[in-house]
Amino acid sequence: MTHYHHGCRYMPDDFRRQWQNPEIILNKIGLKQGDIFVDIGCGNGYFAIPAAKIVGEKGTIYGLDVNEEAIAELNERAKSADLKNLIITASDAATTCFGEAFADIVFFGIDLHDFVEPSIVLQNAHRMLKANGKLGDLDFKKIHMEFGPPYEIRFSEAKAKELIERAGFITESIEDIPPYNYLIIARPVQLK
Questions:
Q1: CATH 3.60.20.10: does it fit domain 7-188?
Q2: Do 100 and 128 form a contact (C-beta atoms < 8 A)?
Q3: DSSP state of 93
């Protein structure tokens, strides 16, 4: 099994699916056929692969992760699933912006706490989103657990909400995703 930089990447997908269903989470954010979806910290594609199936041939998934091994694995998984709607890059989210105002959804899956400067990454997300787009931030609750990121680096819902709003978003909802996660959905405010 491949090891990556943050908590969930150490777990096999079948174990993770017992308590975190990517299709249900993507549905909660509102991902639909034809959407353009940006997965920041996509790893080996736990969310990117199901998202690619949901958006279909008319949609596009942009995936970004600093871990080249994870990106290589994601590319292999996409190829074996005959998915041709993924644009995957091994790069740093603080210095990478795929474009301006083009994405329907920008998604952080269990990784906002990993960035040295989450405010810069969130500002890039803001730039990429269409005016009516959505930001989705799924993360571990700030509770002590035997797996996942260390307690010390986890963001509480309030801390994540504060960072997101400071980057120019309005929080639409904060939802408990039992047993370990929360999901924040926010919309961009048009910055002057």
A1: no
A2: yes
A3: T
